[in-house]
Amino acid sequence: MFQNIGEIALLFWSTIRALPLVWRQRAKVLEEFHEIGNASLLMVAVLSFFLGGVIALQTGPVLAERGLHSAIGGLVGISMAKELAPIMMSILIAGRIGSAFAAEIGSMRVYQEIDALRTMNINIVNYLVMPRLVAITIALPMLVTFAILVGWLGGATVAQVTTQIDVPFESFFENMKNIVGIGEVMHGVFKSWCFAWIIGVVSCHQGLTTRGGPRGIGRSVTKAVVNSIVLIVLFDYVLTRLLLH
Amino acid sequence: MNDNGTTQHGVSVQVRGIRRSYGEQEVLKGIDLEVRPGEIFVIMGASGSGKSVLLRHIIGLEAPDAGEILVNGESVHSSDVASKYRMALVFQSGALLNSLTVGENVGLYLSEHRLKSPDEIRKIVLDKLEVVGLKGTEDKLPTELSGGMRKRAAIARALVIEPELILYDEPTSELDPVSSVVIGDEIYQLNKRIGVTSLVVSHDRDLAFGIADRIAVMHEGEIIALGAPDEVKRSQHPVIRKFIHADFKRQPKA
User: Fold this and answer.
1) B173-206 residue pLDDT tens
2) B42 to chain A, minimum CA–CA distance in Å?
């Protein structure tokens, strides 16, 4: 385990050092960026709409019973912005994109494509890891921002159409405006930025250390997703603690 | 003479006391050999004798437990060697990047190192594909090619580097006899044309005796014979006799 942590830290550092070459690899960054956005946008929209809706549905009637139904906008707003959108979208992207990173790089390793690159003196980090990491660190915060907005919309829709809550759109967003500011949104976006690095580095590392044939690739994909999710939840707590102050 | 009209010289390779174990199994047991500049050197041996592992060490993909490998007198693991000497390995599987077209694969070295403009790269790629008989395949994906074509595309990718040392890992495995001869001819012609040092690992007896200047025979991680093809043919070592003369023994039907 400690060896893995050391290797991941080294890969992270090598990728940081490769960042000045990002312009040269812009075509690959764009390709990956398109892949991440294209593959995830619809899923993100559906997931976050219903996530916002279910929070409204769970908390709205309880608040309404106590005469606090006007607070629902703030509650949905702050839950989506600071916690649910960043963590749920990151877990979704770990499953969808982290697994793809590990599978693509893992199969390249198994089928000697990475060895071929090395014999051509092509730097693996510059060619394979850095473009993926740059793409995911741009795409995930954008997806999370989108998820926050759609989640709010989902919460507001459910709050209006559910008779036990019965909070109109305008009141929902009026209340939300009093509680949720740009700082709360940035809180979530910052966390998603950190999670993007975790997904990218862990998944690429897992791909690069793949051994064996197709079974080895499968094992790497599973480990990439599981390890990313565990680290995301762990870092979510740490970052939330730090950001409290 | 190369395409630019300049003479190229191959590099020398010295392998000194290489040992390598994987777990309990010792795969290379103190290999010593020297490949002279510009020669075709074939390492022959049965499957599992350690030939491909030795090749991976020579190009620097793996580090030995003991011993050293020198290219023109410099350790293959020193940071300078990769940038100072152009080396290429033609993998047994071809190892083309499946996400790129054949043309992009062949031109990858030039495009990634920004050595030529895109137009020049395209011209060079078309030239090299024509040399290996793959004209018109530049826009295909590697998965659309047969095994032999993939191997030839891998050779074209190696040619683009204009290497001083080229290593071939089982270049004729999985190929029909006609394709094997085409590949063997290509290795020979390339060596004569640009003077590249060629190190071929193979268990194909016809290829080895057909193109080699010198042959080393490996058995269980050791070199058991080294010399000109005729000398190896005359060897009385029982393993070599068996390897060279292995054939089907079938009783005629009564």
Assistant:
1) 877 888 788 888 888 988 888 889 999 999 888 8
2) 20
Enclosing domain of residue A62: 25-244
* Same domain, residue pair B79 and B168: yes
- Pick A113's closest partner by Cβ from B61, B97, B109: B97
Helix/strand/coil percentages in chain A, nearest 5: 90, 0, 10
Q: Please list every residue in chain A whose beta carbon sits closer than 8 Å to the beta carbon of residue B106.
A: none
Q: Is B75 among the domain residues? A: yes
Domain with B69, as residue range(s), is 9-86+164-172+182-245
CA B17 to chain centre: 21
Q: Which residues of A touch B (CB under 8 A)?
A: 24, 104, 108, 111-113, 115-122, 127
The ipTM assigned to this model is: 0.83
How many distinct structural domains can be found in chain A?
1
How many beta-carbon contacts under 8 Å exist across A and B? 43
Same domain, B82 and B100: no
B contacts of A104 (beta carbons < 8 Å): 99
Looking at the structure, tell me whether residues B228 and B123 fall in a common domain.
no
Model pLDDT for residues A172-183, shown as the tens digit of each residue: 998 888 888 899
Q: Check B88 against A113: CB less than 8 A apart.
A: no
The answer to whether the CB atoms of B88 and A118 lie below 8 A apart is no
Q: Give the model's confidence band at B4: pLDDT under 50 very low, under 70 low, under 90 confident, else very high.
A: very low
Q: Are residues B123 and B80 in the same domain?
A: no
Question: What is the least distance, in Å, from the CA of B158 to any CA of chain A?
Answer: 9
> Two tokens at A23?
């312009």
**Inter-chain contact B112–A127, Cβ cutoff 8 Å?**
yes
Give which of A117, A124, A112, A121 is closest to B91, Cα–Cα: A112
User: Domain with B68 in it: what CATH number?
Assistant: 3.40.50.300
Q: Kindly state whether residue B253 falls inside one of the protein's structural domains.
A: no
Residues B105, B123 within the same domain: yes
